[in-house]
Amino acid sequence: MNFTMKSIKYVNKDNNKFCRSIIPGKSINAAFTMIELMISIALLASVMTISYTFYFFSANISNKGLDKISMQKTLRFNLEKICSDLRSAKEIVKIEPNMLEFKRFIDEKQQKPGINLFGDSEYRRIKYEYKKKGYNDKFDAIYETVDGQEQLMMYFPEIKEKIFEPYTFDSEDNLIAFDMRENDSVLRSKISLIKIRFEVKGPKESLTLTSSVNPRYLYGFKQQPYWNFIK
Q: How does residue 8 score in pLDDT terms, banded at 50, 70 and 90?
């Protein structure tokens, strides 16, 4: 024997609300329709899509910020190191757009310098050099060489060339750009200003950091050879 169900409504006298009753022999019509189900699924999918998009956008912005801070920290640390060494430079040995080699007085904290009667002092020979794809054949790199010992300073997917820009004094004591192609030893000995520019590209961010430094040597060591430049 087959039964069908039908719902009828009646009023509950106790709380004046409609109640639903099921009696045998009648069909029921109380389920969700296919259209209502599809609309619900579409609304749920839209909410999830918007939520995921907002989360992905926020995470991406956060990661970019962290990457940029990390790049700034690396560039600033290495730039300060180069500037610090140049401020204690005794002599610029060689300079090119992507390479700088000089002699630096030994810091008293590292080793007490000995200055003889001729004004000579102990020094370290330092070279900073840019190498295209110099790290794992994938990354541009900056290397530091101290007394023949080379070590990696930093690397990025791309580092723009022409990092060092020196200036010197001409015969009339006017500050001019130093011609690195001629590499005149007299003008090189008078280099008084070096501009340093790091322009790098990371996986997600690009960053440029510049600085200028006056080598400590200048004319002073020539004119006052017995002066202790470390102090």
A: very low
Q: Are 213 and 87 in contact (CB under 8 A)?
A: yes
144 bridge partner residues: 128, 151
Query: Comparing C-alpha atoms, which of 230, 196, 194 is closest to residue 215?
Result: 194
User: How much is the mean pLDDT over the chain?
Assistant: 76
User: Which tokens sit at 224?
Assistant: 């006052």
C-alpha distances in Å from residue 17, one per residue of 10, 23, 29? 8, 19, 20
Q: Please return the burial class of 98, using the count of CB atoms within 10 Å of its CB with bins 0-12, 13-18 and 19+.
A: middle
Burial class (CB in 10 A: 0-12, 13-18, 19+), 142: buried
Please check whether residue 140 is in contact with residue 159, taking contact to mean a CB–CB distance below 8 angstroms: yes
Top pLDDT among 66 and 91 is at: 91
Mean pLDDT for 17-38 is: 60
Q: At 111, list the tokens.
A: 């080793």
Report pLDDT for 90.
Answer: 82
Q: 99 vs 121, which has greater pLDDT? A: 99
Task: Give dist(CA 109, CA 86) in Å, integer.
Answer: 17
